[in-house]
């Protein structure tokens, strides 16, 4: 299941890219699957799916980001699943989204030279936050639907 979801993150990230204006970056829906995986399968699977699935996607067109993405999206998946058994299940994905946006801010600021890097990081920060929080909402919604289906199967099975 983890490998399949990782491949799905790579595919959805590669094929459903939404370009960010004034930047070479893009928005994608891979975070929905990362958050879902963390919540449904736990933090280790979330980290594997987020890190490897997203890094594979970066190998197609954005190879400079492979290593930062492996770390940043891996942390997002790990954090998304870290509080899943508590009443604060949404807190992990929210922290993960913030860490993801902050991680890319830091990576972009350091990877590109001087003021250009900082300007790029600043210009992409709102889009990374948007992507992260769409991932939180979408991933949590998918998680709730799947949990409801599995609970109904247990009751009727």
Report on the architecture of this protein:
This protein is mainly α and 157 residues long. The chain has a single domain, classed as Arp2/3 complex 21 kDa subunit ARPC3 (Orthogonal Bundle), CATH 1.10.1760.20. It contains 6 helices and 2 strands, in the order H-E-E-H-H-H-H-H. It has helices spanning 2-15, 30-41, 43-59, 66-82, 91-111, 114-156; strands at 18-19, 26-27. The chain has a two-stranded antiparallel ribbon. A hairpin with a 6-residue loop joins strand 1 (18-19) and strand 2 (26-27). Helix 1 (2-15) runs antiparallel to helix 2, helix 1 packs parallel to helix 3 and helix 2 packs antiparallel against helix 3. It starts with a helix and ends with a helix. The relative contact order is 0.16.
């Amino acid at each position: 299941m983890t490998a399949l979801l990782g491949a799905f993150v790579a595919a959805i990230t590669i094929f459903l890219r939404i370009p960010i204006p004034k930047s070479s970056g893009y928005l994608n829906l891979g975070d929905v699957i990362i958050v879902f995986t963390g919540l449904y399968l736990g933090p280790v699977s979330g980290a594997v799916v987020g890190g490897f699935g997203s890094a594979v996607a970066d190998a197609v067109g954005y190879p400079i980001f492979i290593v930062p993405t492996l770390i940043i999206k891996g942390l997002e998946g790990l954090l998304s699943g870290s509080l899943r058994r508590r009443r604060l299940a949404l807190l992990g994905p929210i922290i993960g989204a913030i860490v993801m946006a902050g991680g890319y801010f830091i990576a972009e600021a350091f990877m590109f030279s001087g003021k250009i890097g900082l300007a790029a990081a600043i210009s992409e920060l709102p889009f990374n936050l948007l992507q992260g929080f769409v991932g939180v909402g979408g991933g949590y919604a998918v998680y709730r639907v799947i949990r409801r289906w599995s609970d109904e199967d247990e009751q009727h099975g």
